[in-house]
Amino acid sequence: MPVNLNAATAAPAPFLTAPMLAPAERVPTPVWVLLRGLSRESGHWGVFPEHLLRELRLLQPAAQMLMLDLPGTGTQRRQASPTQVSAIVDACRAELQGRGVSGPVSLIGMSLGAAVLSDWANRYPSEVEAGVLINPSLRPFSELFRKPRPLNYLGLLLLSLSRFSARMREERVLSLTTRLTPTQAVIDRWVELQRQHPLGVRNTARQLLASMRYRASRTRPSAPMLLLCSKADNLIDWRCSQAISRAWGAPLRLHTKAGHDLPLDDPLWVARAITEWLRDRSIQGVVPGEWH
Predict the structure, then answer these.
(1) Which of 71, 99, 272, 287 could serve as 8's disulfide partner, Cβ 3.0–4.6 Å?
(2) In angstroms, what CA-CA distances link 241 with 167, 209, 220, 236, 274?
(3) Do the Cβ atoms of 49 and 41 come closer than 8 Å?
């Protein structure tokens, strides 16, 4: 399916593009869509998108990247966040279609974004060419060994209810979600994001409810998947990613030192893990969109 880029380049959400090719040289344009996690917006990706796009262009010179805000966050903060992951998927699909992106696209989802990715690929397989799940917590896989750590998730919600200053709240979130990230510059950026796009307690709670309700399929999606996880994650047990990898037959890459926010802790590692996976598939002669 073709990708109409005219509307996408004028979109308010970040859209990173490669130089346009001459008509005779045009090839199908790879579009990568990034989906953030619970109570986080596209600005919380930090420098990861720039690292990823630079690495991707070594393999896909025309690659484009779109960072979507989930309903209730960032540019979509005035929307009520759905309490079902399926409804979040439909909102994201409508957003892409409104921007003239007709697919198929490759999805990268972290935490709640990984649940959105999983449901999207399961219900609309023709729209997803590939998927990268970062530190996912998906039932029924998490139930096989240990449930996610709900008290830590509850802690994130309670931070939204607290009377702490924005800086103190963001410092505590950072301490829960990262292990390798220098604090000051990141906190300054996060406080500014909160000032620009304040996140309501109600939408945080609704996103948490959607995440807890979601149940992924045990059957592997039609699109190829890559699992990336952090062994030092304090929110999600890394063995959930291992269980998904085994059930779906999807490759798994494990970072031994990063926290839950793996793209923030080690953005270059994540970018290279994704492009190495794509390069290996290309060397093996695997057609894009196919498992093997």
Answers:
(1) 99
(2) 32, 21, 13, 9, 16
(3) no
Cβ atoms within 10 Å of 58's Cβ, excluding its own:
11
Residue 226 CA to residue 269 CA, distance in Å, equals 14
Q: Which residues have C-beta within 8 Å of that of residue 249, sequence separation ≥ 6?
A: 220, 291
Q: Taking residues 98-106, report their average pLDDT.
A: 89
The 10s digit of each residue's pLDDT in 147-205 is 445 545 556 655 655 556 778 888 888 888 899 987 888 999 999 998 898 877 888 88
Q: What letters, b where the CB count within 10 A reaches 16 and e where it falls short, cover 186-215?
A: bbeebbebbeebebbeebbbbbbebbeebe
Helix axes 267-283, 48-56, angle to 10 degrees: 20
Kindly give, in sequence order, each residue whose CB lies less than 8 Å from that of residue 246, ignoring residues fewer than 6 positions away: none
Q: How many CB atoms lie within 10 A of CB 144?
A: 15
Cβ–Cβ < 8 Å for 223, 133:
no
* Reported pTM: 0.86
pLDDT in tens, 23-66: 434 456 899 999 998 889 999 999 999 999 999 999 999 999 99
* Residue-level pLDDT at 3: 41
The answer to whether 176 and 152 are in contact (CB under 8 A) is yes
Number of residues assigned to the chain: 292
Tokens of 4: 């109409």
Q: How far apart are CA 216 and CA 219, in angstroms?
A: 9
